[in-house]
Amino acid sequence: MIASRTHIKVSLGYFLLAALLGVLLRTFVVATMPINYRFMVHTHSHIALLGWVYIALTTLLYHLFLDKGVLDRKYRRIFWFTQICLLGMLLSFPFQGYALFSIIFSTLFLLASYWFSVFFIKYVPLPFKGTKAYSCVKYALWFMVGSSIGPWSLGAIMTVLGPESIWYRLAIYFYLHFQYNGWMVMALLGLFFYLLEQLQINISQKTFRYFFLTTVLGIILSFFLSTLWTGPPMIYYLLGGLGAVLQLMGFGILLNICLVNKVVLKSALSPFRLNVLKLVAFLLLVKMMLQWLTAWPYFANLAATILDFTIGYLHWTFLGVISMGLLFFLEFFGLIRLSKTASALYLLGFLLTEILIFYRGMAAWMGWPLGEDYSKFLAGTSILIPLAVLVLLGHSSKGNGVKAKV
Q: Residue 132: which of 223, 200, 54 has the closest Cα?
């Protein structure tokens, strides 16, 4: 437990750093600073995805599914090798962007993620391998490994077609789609089924099979939504839209499971935890509705031409669905102490920045006025998120979650 909590504090440290870099990037617009903006964007995104989310998720998976006493030494090797990769990216991206050293450490990180995936699947105890939670987590890991096809293909694309080729952006979108929707969201769903199974909630195999098939197929097909900016044939819109609908169907099945077992969930979760879980579910529903909306040609073109809509959606997914979902599970399983103060600060910062980002997109679309101090307001409200993470770190010296059954 102590090692897991320490590793989670490391991941929260990355979260704090990523949030501070986000404030720096938004302050750059209103105050001149001696930094390369594009390089800092690369640093911000890599530390957020690979530092905060990846470390938090893999620590949770190790903590809940594996025999920590027997495998501790092997896991520590993977953990510290991953930290070397992250440190290398942190010391190279701000100064050179995508260049020799940052590419080397990014490549080593991919190898570290393969190492963890093989380690996890190999050493999961046999009783877990028949669970619904493990089915989701295993596919999440496969999605993570599969997403790396995008980065691996970039070298060949740049050499043969050049960075201006549509295939360059498609490779990046392929990676991001299967990271966000495949690895991260699917892993969170696996953690939720783990919670349900620990509460001894019985889910029929037929019901789970419908949920699993609609969700996995939906994740695969909805990648086509990331290709619509190229103006492809109508079949791509139909496939992407079908993927969005299938994910909504999977969400509906999961929601029905929760409603059928709401008495058990209410008795197991405090009102605060239950409200956090409901918030994450709402954010996930909105995310899926936005996906479905972009399957329509008009809105697909709108999302492709107005960058703020894309940025708002990505932050809604990352800061909303994924990060809040992670905080819920970390608190529930006793790895952090999620205070109401930290939650309120984080939620306020998240909502205010999302409103401002989407408003700027609406202003570009509808011709609404944008005040002269808009950028200052956006930078100012962004400070609330790293402040919330600081409070969270300060309150997490002792965990107070429910101890998971292993």
A: 200
